[in-house]
Amino acid sequence: xxxxxxxxxxxxxxxxxxxxxxxxxxxxxxxxxxxxxxxxxxxxxxxxxxxxxxxxxxxxxxxxxxxxxxxxxxxxxxxxxxxxxxxxxxxxxxxxxxxxxxxxxxxxxxxxxxxxxxxxxxxxxxxxxxxxxxxxxxxxxxxxxxxxxxxxxxxxxxxxxxxxxxxxxxxxxxxxxxxxxxxxxxxxxxxxxxxxxxxxxxxxxxxx
Length: 208
Description:
This protein has a 7-stranded mixed beta sheet, with helices on both faces. The protein has a single domain (about 5-205), classed as Rossmann fold (3-Layer(aba) Sandwich), CATH 3.40.50.150. Helix 1 (about 5-25) packs parallel to helix 4. It is built from 6 helices and 9 strands; from the N terminus they run H-H-E-H-E-H-E-E-H-E-E-E-H-E-E. The mean pLDDT is about 95. By secondary structure, the protein is α/β, with parallel strands linked by helices. The protein has helices spanning about 5-25, 30-40, 60-65, 75-85, 125-135, 170-180, and strands at about 45-50, 70-75, 90-95, 105-110, 135-145, 150-155, 160-165, 180-195, 195-205.
């Protein structure tokens, strides 16, 4: 298999606007539930790192109304859209498994619909990196897989090949806890993608 991260970066470079259409098709219900959790649990002006921010819509843009936002993504084309869509955030092109930030820099880390694109063998290291850059007691809001899925490439996902990889929901919850987080909630949330059912494990946790 070609380098999975190269597949993801190239795929998101190609699909750009198609992904925004997908997010729109899912509707606001589940997404808004977890954005509300972020807004209710952090003071205004807190600093949030959003992993896999994509084009910055609608999550990054909404959170900039209350917080200082730093968005990180592996796709250059997605970040080009993000800069146009969200003028008040800072955007960085990088691999989320190697965060270019100092220890204890952020009040919260949000990762919506993106960790399932990272090879699951790297999820433990990624969670450790997230914990490293969070302040003590910092908040984590993350979307992870619900079913056990070894790495595979879907040949045509929104117009480009795309890599997916994740553990089952219970394993993901355990990995977050073992990485040094207190689990606040971990729930399977069904959604629709262009009318097709999907389900993710949504985890909210705080750094111990």
